[in-house]
């Protein structure tokens, strides 16, 4: 086999560039297996250098069915790479594995992919090949008894990959078109309105504390009496809770009504929004 044929084979096996393959073959004295190992080690080195960079682009992938649904965020440095075929194929397979291991990242990273290499090993190879930092971001699986999951993708990159994704789990014993339509619509509402909690009393205390600090800063030089300032402050905080809690948000498709009103109008016994998860690249 000529040196050029060996380089071609090495490129096909590893995805590395022509110069890297040629240099590895020279170092390995023409032994392809040794050259593969040299490129693997160098790939780790290249990947390590790139991991100090910022990766805020990427895609969100959705996998699963109405019983169990999973979301995984995979970040890269540029939107150009987010549309790269090798990156997309990696994320698609990764998404299916993520759903199987219930979004446990340790299990995920050590899971074998179709080529019999682990997720971590494949990620290192992909970083070396593409030349950008790639990381696994947020992951989430939703799986409840007596619940049905609904999903929504916004700004689709390809198939089940997008820039924003939502899973909504509705708890109900009934199955009908009315519930299915609401499941789709509430997922779209969540995508657009980005609620931070289901109900006002379930908003994280740290978020409320931060908002209170902003309100206090805004009002401190107003010149109004303390009693009036307290009332205004309380009103602003209550409005913040209402606008950021799913059930008390204005319904996107009819802003004169709240989400809880739409839920009541369905007249489906014991229908509840059990859980939801929304994720957007860059947020």
Describe this protein's structure.
The chain has 283 residues and is an alpha+beta fold. Among the domains are: 3-50, Helicase, Ruva Protein, domain 3; 57-170 and 274-280, Elongation factor Ts, dimerisation domain (Tetrahydropterin Synthase, Chain A, 2-Layer Sandwich). It has helices at 3-14, 18-27, 32-50, 79-82, 85-100, 105-109, 119-130, 177-193, 205-219, 226-244, 259-265, and strands at 57-64, 68-76, 135-143, 147-158, 161-171, 250-251, 254-258, 272-280. Strands 1, 2, 3, 4, 5 and 8 form a six-stranded antiparallel sheet that branches. The mean pLDDT is 90.
Strand content: 15-25%
Distinct helical segment count: 11
Structural class: alpha+beta
Mean pLDDT: 90
- The CATH topology label of the domain at 57-170 and 274-280 is Tetrahydropterin Synthase, Chain A
* Top CATH class of the domain at 57-170 and 274-280: Alpha Beta
Largest sheet: 6 strands, antiparallel
Q: What order do the helices and strands follow?
A: HHHEEHHHHEEEHHHEEHE
Distance between the termini: 52 Å
- C-alpha Rg (nearest Å): 25 Å
The rough form would be described as elongated
Helical content (DSSP H or I, runs of 4+): 40-55%
The name of the CATH architecture of the domain at 57-170 and 274-280 is 2-Layer Sandwich
Could you give the count of β-strands? 8
